[in-house]
Design goal:
Helices cover about 45% and strands about 20% of the residues. It is an alpha+beta fold. It folds into 2 domains: about 30 residues, no CATH class; about 100 residues, Glutaredoxin, CATH 3.40.30.10. The longest helix has 25 residues. The protein is globular. About 25% of the residues are buried.
Length: about 140
């Protein structure tokens, strides 16, 4: 186990530099929350280049989310997987992953995008899990 963790950290050093390697070795808690994310409430979308589900999200649900009460309460922020700005988050495996931050802390997440109807069900679950309430 320790050898595998060390190998992952070394691979992180080679692939993403010192910050990525240390995050893999020490875990997300070792990474500092960037000041611009430290005090906000937001829905962070983590995506990969060429992700067909991300393209589908853009076509089907992005605009309605951005203009919704939920989108006003937790604005959508987009990052590519591996971006050092989101290294403080727990590991992201699938794209897209939606992470709800409240005061810069992850409170809930949803993995994948399978259509607008399921997306809105997940948003309701995330909002309920976080205790956030909309006026809508």
């Amino acid at each position: 186990m320790a050898v595998r963790l060390l190998c992952s950290a070394l691979a992180g050093l080679l692939a993403g530099g010192l910050f990525a390697g240390l995050t893999l070795l020490l875990g997300p808690a070792a990474a500092q929350i960037p000041p611009d994310l430290a005090k906000i409430t937001a829905l962070v979308m983590i995506e990969d280049r060429g992700c067909p589900y991300c393209v589908r999200f853009d076509a089907e649900a992005r605009e309605s989310y951005v203009n919704s009460p939920e989108g006003k309460l937790a604005p959508l922020l987009r990052y590519r997987r591996g971006d050092p700005a989101i290294a403080f988050l727990a590991r992201v495996v699938y794209s897209p992953t939606f992470v709800l931050l409240v005061d810069g802390q992850e409170v809930a997440r949803s993995t994948g995008y399978m259509g607008a109807e399921l997306f809105w069900m997940e948003i309701a679950r995330l909002m309920q899990a976080s205790g956030l309430k909309t006026n809508g």
